[in-house]
Design brief:
homotetramer; alpha/beta; Aspartate Aminotransferase, domain 2; Aspartate Aminotransferase, domain 1
């Protein structure tokens, strides 16, 4: 059955796979000290325009969030995130497991609004008892957000300015960064992100790798003895090459960006199909995740023909569902989706 | 340069790699709910003779130790390990990071002696103030140990009996289990281990996989909501298939055991080479790690021809070095080692 | 200067102090194994009508919350609290420090509304991905709340029923319980609380003791080896007698209730003073904390005559301030407050 | 029954008690911002000869160790302690609960030997893989040690020098410091300790207070926002005055030192009694804890007349027992001990 359930439901992009095969026999040092990691880091620095940045490869998104946040916060600090942020809701309390509080802000379609952030901080420091409350030490954003939405360059700039003012670290979770960068409706480049954020990561798992996220410390601010902190958190791979080889492939010949562009193109065509059949959007997403509202009967019938994900109940008789495109989504998959919707509508 | 530095310096065994390629395009659910994980678990249960066991796949050894130990101990408990155990020394305090103490016992060539364990527990419970001390809740063993040595069936049985008596969990770290099982000097089978231990893991990373360890809960004792505990520790892979596919390959046509046998065969031949040149063994290891003592001058010269690992200084003029074999060690590698030693001795 | 800043700004009630003096020379065992702790526990069991309850004495409120919550939650669980709850805001992340998430619910004057709780739980378990989210394992209430408000017997019963339904622990923070129990506007007795809650604590620090909170496990549900868990969290006093003696005094001749009644009487008289001068209440509090709204000029002038606490800004020109009564608040203090307000209004 | 079980089995020294009574009615700010804490801190700075030191009051010893160690170590660091150190054995894993490893060194009568420390550090940094091992970031000493023994000024100086060399913090646990300072066999003064150590604490609980330890950061090195870190660990008392008042009393008219001297005098007389009856010492302790070896029969019979503590079995028929003196030990208590031993020996 054709599947739009996620951007991590198939294996690796063929070019990533080929690189793994080609390098398989080489004997190299473990724990990230191999030439593949070094080459990948260099390509990432170059693509992001930050020659002095430090790059460290980790395995998955929740792990990366917990490792980065807990090793960069001071003891008395917590991290600010949108109430709908991944670390607030969908990581089973991984940040709290490291002993730090997630300070939740209101959100708009998944985004933190700069004014809300400024108001929160002003109120915090105005409170005589704020030393009895967790200090805000970092702002966590996801780009794209959990709703597939994006920050504008102006918004990210405002948030970065507030962070500087309050001496907080700005951390951007780019688990789906490929789709944010290649969206037709963004003015934020990889270089902008590297310039504005103190640390961010480039998601591999959801962009054609088997696993892997590349953390970029943009201001020579990688925590001292970070390798030991990573090891202590059980996040250091013996065969670090697995991550280095894949990111080296992703940043060769612009593969990472091509993967992003392909998924965006597929998503745009998919949006056209939904529009053709008058299926309304729950949210206007300019990236590879599309949220639409369907009658429950349609959800059930369509679900027998193509795979997609339940998101939330909209009302008594309607449901929000999510369709995601990725490196492996094909024109044929979309034809199958088109045909399936038509059949359901025609009552076939 | 030919390398004997570790059993994780090359990529995946070709049969593992082939399976990754063959399954790459299939769209499957994430987070370990895929058919490959299910098939691999079934094959492992069958190989270990524990039809009711629960199998969970994690990424690396330190991660596995920390996740298993912290999710199985009670709040007031710690884990007993040999003073030289991997969790005691070489995991950067990963167990302590989860809030639990490692209770160190004396060791003999890396092994815990059953009598020492019994004496420790008797003294603990005889102490009127033991409620001010961490309760011993688990025994951690590695098999092979960090010195390449092995427990006998009798020793493991004695330790298991003590664990039962004191209601402690017996956990066996099998990061290099393939080499323990296929050693010519062992009477312990995979079935014995599954029967005697409450939980153990089968190392993939050091036995031909790119990454991956298979945890086996042998007594239907997987902690409740374990998936959530794994997620909370940042250890849940989105593409869980990566682990499932590899272990499915490892447990198809006995690949795991063939890899173990090959490395043992290579190690035995390597031992013959050391004997031929009168290079003494630091320890008698029946597995794939060999520790030998060399004059410092020889270490330096040989190090220019083949790669191996510094272990520790023996005395002013001698050093203990480690040579490891693995799935990719070849007869040619051994010829090269033989030739290199000869050249060093001949002063070439 | 007369002070209404808090109910912990003076030392111990004279009857508590006297007991400390009278028992000072007796040599007794440490760590809570003394006869004073035993006697106090027995008196508390009797007053609460729970003969089988287990009572454990801790030093302060934040400590008690962190110790109780972290030792009663399962690894994969978090605790539900009002967004304004003490553990959510004013404990510097002490619960998160133990590795557990605080799941924040909306609140009404500091209270959790049973319907909101039920809706949250229904949505949680309806979510297919809830295993990626922290399990709700406990409900935390404060009674009185941080705003001095109270739960009715009906509300607490409804919440208890929901907890039973979802197998969650119901924990009531009674840091100011004395004032909740003796309020003129409550129908909840100590016996009701002991019957409905799984665990609660009786605040000593804010009710006439130098320090101390008495945790009551009402269902023989004190965690196994709790003393060790308390020790592990640095919360076990060597001279446990300090807590036992004070609670023994508090539960002799109804001192605890007399202290509560006195503070409530003083608070009611204080409310009369505010009403006399037309100073509006920010919230209708039936306990010993009163929140009133004053013009900023009045706040400044009154602040030079009597001590009280800034709570929050109401608008550009008004401020919410807090006045608290306690065991040591006297009729003279109130006369002084009355006179001071009059002087400020008259412009003296 | 006369008791020599511990130095915390009675209440507070009368002068401490009197100060609590005298200050009881004063209304002061909470959380340590009261004038008593300020005055006590000033007296301690003066007594220790460190005018710029920062002083913070905590409640008990295990709490103090965990708070100080965890807030001063970097993420990747652990603390070195003697194998018999209090944090290694008798704190139920409180340091590990904060996520940090205790690195155990051999000991001699409870002391760390400077040479052992130097050797440990040299070996650690010589190891190529030390980044996979916990970094040693602090040395923890207790003075007196758990065996009542003392460091000489020369030894402490050597250890301090090694700490400087390796940029480690030197932390001295002075739970029984009063008895170390007033021992007849020490050349270490409070000023020496303040000069040589980066942080140490002065034990109140075991020296005449109801509770309380005074942490002294000697080099303006109190961790930033330490109050918040203390609060986060549940260790901040609302009525911080309880600690301030007691330490103010202890450091008025040399009370702390008089208490120490008294206990030492009593201990010396007690040693004379043991010598008179030929009861051998297990260890030569120059402080207020005395360890002697008795036949099991004598232990049992004497235990019916005076209270003391079982320490450990010496051999099949002998036991090591501990007798402790404190502020409340009287000449009469010693007469009773003398008479009791005589009666047991005479078979009465």
């Amino acid at each position: 059955m054709v599947s739009f359930t996620s951007d991590y439901n198939t294996g690796a992009h063929p070019e990533v796979m080929k690189r793994l095969i080609d390098t398989n026999a080489e004997a190299v040092p473990g724990y990230g000290a191999d030439p593949f990691c070094a080459a990948a880091a260099e390509k990432i620095r170059s693509a992001a325009g930050v020659p002095g940045a430090q790059v460290f490869f980790l395995t998955g998104g929740t792990q990366t969030n917990a490792v980065v946040i807990s090793s960069m916060l001071a003891d008395y600090e917590g991290v600010i995130a949108a109430k709908t942020g991944h670390i607030s809701v969908h990581e089973a309390g991984a940040v709290e497991y490291t002993g730090h509080e997630v300070l939740e802000l209101p959100q708009k379609e998944g985004r933190i609004i700069p004014e809300d952030l400024a108001a929160y901080l002003a109120a915090y420091y105005a409170d005589d008892n704020h030393e009895h409350m967790t200090f805000p030490g970092m702002v966590y954003l996801s780009h794209p957000t959990e709703y597939g939405t994006l920050y504008s360059k102006r918004e990210l700039g405002q948030i970065a300015e507030i962070c500087r003012q309050y001496r907080m670290t700005l951390f951007l979770d780019g688990a789906r960064l490929a789709y944010g960068l290649m969206s037709g409706e963004t003015d934020l480049t990889l270089r902008d992100i590297a310039e504005l954020c103190d640390v961010f990561y480039i998601g591999g798992t959801k962009a054609g790798a088997l696993c892997g996220e590349a953390v970029v410390f943009t201001k020579e601010n990688m925590p001292r003895h970070f390798l030991t902190s990573v090891k202590k958190r059980g996040a250091l791979l013996a065969k670090g090459r697995l991550l280095g080889v894949q990111f080296d492939a992703l940043f060769t010949d612009g593969l990472f960006f091509r993967i992003g562009q392909h998924a965006i193109d597929m998503a745009e065509k998919m949006k056209g199909i939904f529009r053709k059949y008058g299926i309304p959007f729950f949210i206007q997403s300019p990236t590879n995740q599309q949220f639409v509202v369907m009658e429950d009967g349609m959800v059930e019938k369509l679900g027998r023909k193509v795979a997609f994900e339940f998101w939330e109940k909209k009302d008594e008789t309607h449901t929000v569902v999510r369709f995601v495109t990725g490196w492996s989504t094909s024109e044929n998959d979309l034809l199958e989706l088109d045909r399936s919707i038509e059949e359901v509508i025609r009552g076939v």
